[in-house]
Design goal:
By secondary structure, this protein is an alpha/beta fold. Among the domains are: 2-68, no CATH class; 79-181, no CATH class; 331-410. It has helices spanning 30-39, 48-56, 92-97, 330-367, 372-410; strands at residues 2-7, 13-19, 64-68, 79-82, 112-113, 118-123, 131-132, 138-139, 150-151, 155-158, 161-164, 168-172, 177-181, 183-186, 196-198, 201-204, 213-216, 220-227, 230-233, 238-285, 288-291, 297-305, 308-314, 322-326, 414-421, 425-429, 432-435, 440-448, 451-456. The strands form five sheets. The protein has a 16-stranded mixed β-sheet that branches. A four-stranded antiparallel β-sheet has the order 4-6-11-10, with no helix packed on it. Strand 12 and strand 13 form a beta hairpin. The radius of gyration is 44 Å and the shape is elongated. The N and C termini lie far apart (123 Å).
Length: 459
Amino acid sequence: MRLEFSISEDRMKAYVLLRKEKEEEKPLTLEELMGAIKTAGIKHGILEENLVRLATSPVYNTPVLIAEGTPPLDGEDGRVEFIKEEAKEVSEEKEEKFRIDLKEIPKKKRIIVKKGETIAKIVPPTPGVDGKDVFGNPVKSKPGRMPEYHIGSNVVLDGDKIVATRSGILVVEKGGTISVLDTLEVEEVDYSTGNIEFPGKLLVKGDVKPDFVVKVQGDITIKGVIEAATVISLEGNVTAGGIKGRGKAFVKAKGVLRSVFVENAEVEAGEIVVERLIENSTVRSGSNVILSGNKGSIRGGLILARMKVEAWQIGSPLGVKTRVEVGTDPTLNERIKILEAQISLDKANVEKLTKALIELRKLKSSLGTLPPDKEALLQKITNTLINLKEAIQKNESELNELVKKAQEMVAEAKVVAKEMIFPGVEIVMFNRIFHVEKPIVKAVVYYRDGEIRVGGYSE
């Protein structure tokens, strides 16, 4: 019996072929086959089941696999594993089953991170595990490759973690550069972007469409128009090409709000600078409302400013009602109104309770003593009167301080009309109202000695 061994090119498989030299030869035993394999140097991955079959039911002139090597296990490549993942879009099926605000869906695609937050971790490559060929020789494995990434803006590598050094939007550029950008740029605010809430700055290259909400920590720049939408900068400025409110827009900035025009909107800011027109709007400023352009006008609505309102024209030849309040802090004014109302209510209650107290005392004087329920009522009224008088005294003291503060504030305030104030305009300063009944040319309106006065304006 002749045994012919063959080995695969990679030495990972060994075969044996049995040839009979004589027809009457007996099959080889398992021990003889094992001895021949050992002599051939094959010692790893021997398939004993195949050898048993060859010994019991030999197959001649056909190669039989008798050993297999252990292939190497290559190492896994390293990777960048992001901690935050994009929120999955709501499926069309779910949109049919549930009521969903479609303006909120695109917002979920943006990955917003906060300063100090871990964005991703670096998972290193593994070295791999070596294999063996059928002769027992080692077969080298390939180690995994290092992940390809680059540290971009506003992120740092801290050990095996990538950490944001400021709040913003996570961006992974071509080539694997990881950055956090503090400015979000969009073409328009519409259904493609959804409502926007962002911890940095925002640049909108077009318009903010009706009914959408923009809420940003820093500056907001809108090249187009805010259309019946809500736009809020919590800490920065807002600059817009225009505000077309349709009675629904609300725009607020902690700093300066700049716009070409404001129509039928409600706006609030530390300072408000409008180039051409404020029309039929409610405008509140912690300092000044300035119409900066030539012929800049205020027509209709309510304008409140702590220091100054300045425009080319205020009101209109048609006599549209326009109310301008200056020299007041809206919060302070509100507190004054609350205190005045509370003092008036408390004094009315004191008057009523005093009358009831007098009647009870008369009754006690005539009877000598009061029934227990009447005596308890007498004591309750007495205590309530004491508390009310103390509250009135405290509130009157606070009111006097606030009125004094308001008078000091209004003394520095003014309304400037570089060309004209038309009839129909009301100017409010502290507790005085000045009704404009005929056109006033080039005027400065101010408050002195408890009265609203009008002076001339000259450039």
